[in-house]
Design a protein that fits this description.
four-stranded mixed β-sheet, globular
């Protein structure tokens, strides 16, 4: 069990990440690649990713065990600002911090020779790690980035609505079922028993597409607190990209033809930062059935993501839909 202890100041400093963290997604996807579970969601992605992996991943495999601890330095806090910024932070990691965190990988068992060599060489091994990380990211995450963004933006919209409706209490109470808000403690199913005290630093909530079943946090309690948790689990869809993107894109092109017209342009704009079907009908001036039908067509076209929240569903505009609106392509 993981228990995160809040003070009043911490509640005021809870915040949602503004975008998916490319380094967290990359590291967590490496777990999913070796995991045979969730075949419906990740089966095709695993096949496509393995077909593109033509470079070495032994260093990643050594630093990211199938279960348990992996070094905090692989997911620097700067990663929330983008892939390049995160890599720059990783490149600048201090050798003493790297050795300290690598030692935790071998805790309780004899350290494998390759890990010992990596630790002893310190920053001399960093270019090899960076090269593997880049190559793996290009194969496993980059082709699916638009889909990942859409999932995270839908999650942000749902949690933002909870925050507006009831403040930080409602936000924390609305998180997925493996997270339980029992004020002033947020509990989470976790492989080990651990208490994290925020001490007025607040908490960054980082939704993740490749995070599954349980949330993840940093090992070092002195690092800025972050909780990475599964996004949009109820209506999560398989990542579209790579080879499988071709039929998806063909379907989208056929469906986009249905969108030409004033009414659907109004409906797409009416979604704004998120809307339930009832709100969408009211904003667009259409019937509930019509709003639902339009949202379904736009979801098939990849313009809208739908996330269930309680007894209602919340529609949000995907990056593709937002780009279409900025270009006025659906107006007529």
């Amino acid at each position: 069990m993981l228990r995160i202890h809040f003070t009043g100041v911490d509640l005021a400093r809870v915040r949602m990440a503004g975008r998916p963290d490319a380094l967290w997604e990359t590291i967590l996807s490496f777990h999913r690649l070796r995991d045979r579970r969730d075949a419906r969601l990740f089966g095709e992605w695993r096949t496509e990713t393995r077909s593109r992996l033509n470079s070495e991943t032994r260093t990643l495999g050594m630093l990211i065990p199938s279960r348990g601890y992996f070094p905090d330095f692989l997911t620097p806090v700067e990663g929330q600002y983008g892939w390049d910024v995160g890599l720059d932070a990783l490149r600048g990691i201090r050798p003493e911090r790297m050795r300290r965190e690598l030692q935790l990988l071998g805790a309780g068992a004899p350290m494998p020779p390759r890990l010992r060599e990596f630790m002893d060489c310190g920053d001399k091994q960093l270019p090899r790690l960076m090269g593997e990380l880049r190559a793996y990211h290009r194969a496993a995450v980059e082709p699916y980035w638009t889909h990942i963004q859409a999932q995270i933006e839908a999650e942000r919209a749902a949690r933002g609505r909870a925050l507006l409706d009831g403040g930080a209490d409602e936000l924390l109470d609305s998180l997925p079922p493996m997270l339980r808000w029992r004020a002033p403690v947020l509990e989470c199913d976790y492989p080990v028993d651990r208490d994290v005290r925020l001490r007025g630093r607040g908490l960054l909530l980082q939704p993740s597409f490749f995070c599954r079943r349980t949330a993840v946090t940093l090992h070092d309690p002195e690092l800025p607190p972050v909780l990475v948790y599964p996004a949009a689990a109820q209506l999560a869809s398989a990542p579209a990209g790579g080879e499988s993107a071709r039929p998806v894109e063909e379907q989208r092109q056929r469906t986009l033809g249905k969108l030409v017209g004033h009414t659907r342009s109004v409906v797409l704009r009416a979604i704004g930062d998120g809307a339930t079907t009832s709100e969408l009908a009211r904003r667009a001036g259409v019937s509930l059935a019509s709003a639902s039908q339009h949202a379904c067509v736009m979801r098939e076209a990849g313009l809208v993501t739908t996330l269930r929240r309680g007894n209602a569903v919340l529609h949000t505009v995907t990056p593709l839909g937002a780009a279409l609106l900025r270009g006025g392509a659906v107006a007529s």
